[in-house]
UniProtKB/TrEMBL annotation:
<dbReference type="InterPro" id="IPR000594">
    <property type="entry name" value="ThiF_NAD_FAD-bd"/>
</dbReference>
<dbReference type="InterPro" id="IPR045886">
    <property type="entry name" value="ThiF/MoeB/HesA"/>
</dbReference>
<dbReference type="Pfam" id="PF00899">
    <property type="entry name" value="ThiF"/>
</dbReference>
<feature type="domain" description="THIF-type NAD/FAD binding fold">
    <location>
        <begin position="10"/>
        <end position="242"/>
    </location>
</feature>
<protein>
    <submittedName>
        <fullName>HesA/MoeB/ThiF family protein</fullName>
    </submittedName>
</protein>
<dbReference type="InterPro" id="IPR035985">
    <property type="entry name" value="Ubiquitin-activating_enz"/>
</dbReference>
């Protein structure tokens, strides 16, 4: 049952015909993990907290640096040197004190993810690290937890979702093979325009809310590419190729 206060707090989304009270209750009972509390994780987590996601698991091992403030909108200048996960939890708790927020000051290793992914209904990959992205993909696939992944470099962003609750779902590795040569190119080395992270991170939270509410996604098995220079979104349907992990599901240890 939704309380009177929550009915007011969430009134603008409850009144939507696509949402209603039933969807709000789904959001309230949902547990979502946000891995990476940088330029994507900040707007994504803000919208999820505001929307009334019942439980947010916030994962980031970094402390805030001066150069983060150009794009990481949860933080203020007085938070420099403080752990992002703790500051984010505090800021989001101020936005919405009625949800549970669990901060983890932790770099998400594959072992850690394997232990924790089963405690959530959805994972948002907001990292800027290809290796962690592949780990998140493997763990979510094995645990049948849906994942929404995003990245932005320069003026260009990407968004893609996989619902591993469905049998036969493709995965990130099907389209972006996990190779040794893969460059770990992130915004520390290549630069990034702040609002593009805001747009793509917000789109990530939008897809999360839709998935939890049972609405169709625009990024399911589909790579959405955002170009900040022209404001174009392009959709690339992913082909039929499957990685070894998806081609031989029996090979995955359960
Ligand atoms: Zn795959």
């Amino acid at each position: 049952m939704i309380s009177h206060k929550d009915r007011i707090r969430y009134s603008r989304q409850i009144m939507l015909p696509q949402m209603g009270e039933a969807a709000q209750e789904k959001l309230a009972s949902a547990r979502v993990m946000v891995v990476g509390l940088g330029g994507l994780g900040c707007p994504a987590a803000l919208y999820l907290a505001s929307a009334g996601i019942g439980e947010l698991h916030l994962v980031d091992g970094d402390t805030l640096a001066l150069s983060n403030l150009q794009r990481q909108i949860l933080y203020k200048s007085n938070h420099i040197h403080k752990p992002k996960a703790l500051v984010a939890a505090q800021q989001l708790g101020a936005v919405n004190p009625h949800i549970r927020i669990l901060p983890y000051v932790k770099k998400a290793s594959e072992a850690w993810l394997s232990e924790h992914a089963s405690r959530v209904d959805l994972v948002l990959d907001c990292t800027d690290n290809q290796r962690i992205r592949q780990s998140i993909n493997r763990v979510c696939r094995e645990m049948a937890v849906p994942v929404i992944m995003a990245s932005v470099q320069g003026f260009s962003g990407q968004l893609v979702s996989f619902d591993f609750r469905r049998k036969g779902s493709p995965c990130y590795t099907c389209f972006f093979p996990d190779t040794e040569q893969e460059r770990v190119d992130n915004c520390e080395t290549s630069g990034v325009i702040g609002p593009a992270l805001g747009i793509v991170g917000s789109a990530q939270s939008l897809e999360a809310i839709k998935l939890l509410a049972g609405l169709p996604l625009g990024s399911l098995d589909t790579l959405q590419v955002f170009e900040a220079e022209t404001l174009d979104w392009r959709r690339l349907s992913l082909g039929k190729e499957r990685c070894a992990g998806c081609a031989e599901p029996m090979a995955i240890a359960r």
